[in-house]
């Protein structure tokens, strides 16, 4: 099974730390960020990230804005929004802007894992399509 | 005080009569009293003034009229009596002119003259006689008495008449020789021999008396004649004592033609009006007297009637003033209470709104720590899974505890979720909804639970129900919430749950009735308060009804509850209907 590669972004340090430990136990490869800016920077430094788990409500650049930037700079990376209830509408809004799904805090670890798997699968599928499309293009150039 | 139990089916409930006093009740009583007094004063003062002026004017004119009347009567009678006496005197004068004393001394002449006089003037002349002016001896006489040759030389009237230089006179009333009250008319005459004679005639006292006695004034007024000495010259209708001060005072007034007015109390203490005038050249006085109560009986009656009328008016005005004041104050009180009620509703809504803001804040702040706690518990769980269960003494306890933390975390999550629903501003879009459809959509959601709780569901939905402008999800939430509450209430014993819709003029009514155990009075007041719940800890958040109330309030409607212990509970939703025209316009707009 492919190792799940996840960037966890939340301004709540405690939450990020604990969830990181739990996810690492479940064989995740993890990076952590505590703000939108940091998430973008970490993404740039760590191109292995497949899925970003992103809290909607953060000081500074909020979840929705961060999402837009991620989708702009790293279109293939899947984003799962993490939200409290007040921001369900925001989360739905986020999905319209390209997020893969949303989860409510506090969330069950198994559900989270499942969602990450789905997101990873989709990303892989996209990547494969791109790869095969590229292969096709190269083949076409060769004129076979 | 929270919401009142509605006792009438009206959109804006009026406070019930026994409702709590909003202001001290005596403040209203004082106001009513002041209004009564003011209106009484305003209406009675002019009335009193008008009455007083009118009565006063009437009084003075009536008095004037009465005095005029009295003086006319006295004046007239005085002239009459004077004329009577003058006529009798001239009768005698003409008699002596045609039959000189020497003729009168002839036998039979006197008798024939008396007969003639009585025939012509009636029985006024009682007798006539010729008296010698030198000796005072009656020489010739005709009449019913046997006077013979009576000697009048010492008689008062004789002496007085001789001394006076008048040719004729009328005496006062006296008893004389015959021992009966009478008065006489005398005329001087001289015979052929130059001897002086006096022709005297007795006037029938009774017939003269009758003339005067017949002069009656009013019912109890009468006329008397007194001489200067205060002796009665007629027999008055009522006993009077002519020597009392009143008569003396009248008699002492200067003689003349002018009438004298006087008012005094008689011996019985009654006010009498006296009008007096001299007659017979100031020798006699005609006095008319009348009790004031008699003379002014009309005036007194009018005055009494006026006062009676005034009393009547006062009573009527007092009654009306009291009644209207009370009505007015009552209306005022009701308006005030209504206002208070409105204020309370505004406060209630404001309270809910601020609780909403607070709730959303709490929800956000609580959510993150709870999330972390749940994650930490999960982490411990993860770590425990790596340990050898046999080496850990309290492995089961750890697991139970961790599960508990997770469960309670879920509970927190549930609470914050509802809090946020409660706090959420109505951003959902409103549309013209048919409540009946909403109920039909919600019913399947409750049916499984209802079946489990042995609750039967009935619906009585009014056809052609007005539409309401509302959010679909919110209306469904309210109906579902109330239905779930009802089913919860009947969980143990089963029962029936009914949905009813009723059309009204400009609003509609939704009734959700259960046959559960009912809600105690004390709880009814707090039932819409946030966090008020009777469910066991962990089962309910106490926000459901609060949310419903908030939703209905924002829709411009009312949510009310009525409950009877042992009989069940009815939740009543009143929603403003939108005008049908709007719907039609909308439809036609869509169709076009």
Could you describe the largest sheet of chain B, including whether it forms a barrel?
Answer: 5 strands, antiparallel
Q: CATH superfamily of chain A, called what?
A: Response regulator
Strand runs of chain B, count = 17
Largest interface, C-beta closer than 8 angstroms, per-chain residues: A-B, 18 and 23 residues
Strand content of chain B: 15-25%
Major β-sheet strand ordering of chain A: 2-1-3-4-5
Give the oligomeric state of the chains in this entry, treating copies of one chain as homo and distinct chains as hetero: heterodimer
Structural class of chain B: alpha+beta
Distance between the termini of chain A: 35 Å
Low-confidence stretches of chain A: none
Mean pLDDT of chain A: 86
Question: Describe it for me?
Answer:
The complex is a heterodimer of chains A (144) and B (592). By secondary structure, chain A is α/β, with parallel strands linked by helices. Chain A has a single domain, classed as 3-Layer(aba) Sandwich (Rossmann fold). Chain A contains 5 helices and 5 strands; from the N terminus they run βαβαβαβαβα. In chain A, α2 runs parallel beside α3. By secondary structure, chain B is of the alpha+beta class. Among the domains of chain B are: 110 residues, 2-Layer Sandwich (Beta-Lactamase), CATH 3.30.450.20; 81 residues, PAS domain (Beta-Lactamase, 2-Layer Sandwich); 164 residues, Heat Shock Protein 90 (2-Layer Sandwich), CATH 3.30.565.10. Chain B is built from 14 helices and 17 strands. In chain B, a hairpin with a 3-residue loop joins β6 and β7. The chains are: A alpha/beta (144), B alpha+beta (592). The interface between A and B is medium-sized, with 18 and 23 residues.
């Amino acid at each position: 099974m492919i190792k799940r590669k996840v960037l966890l972004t939340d301004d709540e340090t405690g939450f990020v730390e604990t969830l990181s430990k739990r996810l690492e136990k479940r064989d995740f490869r993890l990076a952590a960020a505590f703000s939108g800016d940091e998430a973008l920077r970490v993404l740039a430094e760590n191109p292995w990230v497949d899925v970003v788990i992103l809290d909607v409500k953060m000081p500074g650049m909020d979840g929705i804005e961060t999402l837009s930037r991620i989708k702009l700079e790293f279109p293939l990376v899947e984003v799962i929004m993490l939200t409290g209830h007040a921001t369900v509408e925001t989360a739905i809004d986020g999905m319209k802007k390209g997020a893969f799904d949303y989860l409510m805090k506090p969330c069950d670890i198994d559900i989270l894992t499942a969602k990450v798997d789905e997101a990873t699968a989709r990303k892989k599928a996209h990547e494969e399509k791109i790869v095969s499309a590229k292969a096709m293009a190269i083949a076409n150039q060769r004129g076979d | 005080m929270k919401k009142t139990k509605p006792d009438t089916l009206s959109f804006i409930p009026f406070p019930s009569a026994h409702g709590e006093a909003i202001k001290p009740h005596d403040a209203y009583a004082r106001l009513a009293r002041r209004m009564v007094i003011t209106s009484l004063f305003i209406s009675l003062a002019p009335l009193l003034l008008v009455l007083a002026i009118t009565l006063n004017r009437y009084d003075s004119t009536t008095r004037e009229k009465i005095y005029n009347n009295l003086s006319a009567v006295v004046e007239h009678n005085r002239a009459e009596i004077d004329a009577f006496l003058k006529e009798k005197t001239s009768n005698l004068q003409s008699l002596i002119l045609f039959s000189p004393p020497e003729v009168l001394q002839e036998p039979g002449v006197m008798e024939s003259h008396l007969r003639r006089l009585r025939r012509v003037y009636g029985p006024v002349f009682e007798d006539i006689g010729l008296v010698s002016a030198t000796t005072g001896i009656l020489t010739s006489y005709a009449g019913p008495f046997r006077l013979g040759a009576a000697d009048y030389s010492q008689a008062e009237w004789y002496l007085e008449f001789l001394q006076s230089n008048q040719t004729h006179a009328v005496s006062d009333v006296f008893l004389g020789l015959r021992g009966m009250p009478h008065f006489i008319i005398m005329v001087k005459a001289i015979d052929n021999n130059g001897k002086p004679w006096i022709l005297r005639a007795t006037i029938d006292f009774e017939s003269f008396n009758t003339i005067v006695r017949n002069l009656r004034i009013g019912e109890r007024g009468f006329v008397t004649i007194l001489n200067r000495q205060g002796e009665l010259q007629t027999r008055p209708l009522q006993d009077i004592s002519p020597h009392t001060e009143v008569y003396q005072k009248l008699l002492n007034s200067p003689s003349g033609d002018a009438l004298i007015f006087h008012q005094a109390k008689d011996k019985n203490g009654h006010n009498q009006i006296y009008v007096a005038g001299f007659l017979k050249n100031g020798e006699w006085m005609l006095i008319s007297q009348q009790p004031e109560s008699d003379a002014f009986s009309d005036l007194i009656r009018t005055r009494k009637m006026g006062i009676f009328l005034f009393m009547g008016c006062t009573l009527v005005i007092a009654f009306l003033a009291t009644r209207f004041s009370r009505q007015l104050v009552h209306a005022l009180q009701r308006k005030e209470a209504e206002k208070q009620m409105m204020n309370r509703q505004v406060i209630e809504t404001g309270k809910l709104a601020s609780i909403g803001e607070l709730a959303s804040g709490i929800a956000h702040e609580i959510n993150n720590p709870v999330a972390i706690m749940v994650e930490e518990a999960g982490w411990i769980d993860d770590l425990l899974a790596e340990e050898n269960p046999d080496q850990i003494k309290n492995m089961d306890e750890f697991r139970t505890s961790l599960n508990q933390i997770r469960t309670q975390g879920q509970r927190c999550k549930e609470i914050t979720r509802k809090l946020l629903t409660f706090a959420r501003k109505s951003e959902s879009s409103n549309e013209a909804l048919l409540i009946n459809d909403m109920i039909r959509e919600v019913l399947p959601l409750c049916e499984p639970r209802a079946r489990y709780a042995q609750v039967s569901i009935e619906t009585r939905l009014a056809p052609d129900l007005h539409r309401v402008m509302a959010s679909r999800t919110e209306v469904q939430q309210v109906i579902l919430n109330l239905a779930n509450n009802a089913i919860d209430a009947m969980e143990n014993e089963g029962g029936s749950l009914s949905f009813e819709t009723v059309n009204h003029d400009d609003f509609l009514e939704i009734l959700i009735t259960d046959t559960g155990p009912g809600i105690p009075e004390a709880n009814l007041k707090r039932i819409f308060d946030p966090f008020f719940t009777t469910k066991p800890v962990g089962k309910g958040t106490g926000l459901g009804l609060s949310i419903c109330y908030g939703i209905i309030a924002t829709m411009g409607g009312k949510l009310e509850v009525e409950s009877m212990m042992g009989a069940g509970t009815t939740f009543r939703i009143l929603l403003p209907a939108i005008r049908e025209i709007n719907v039609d316009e909308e439809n036609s707009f869509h169709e076009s």
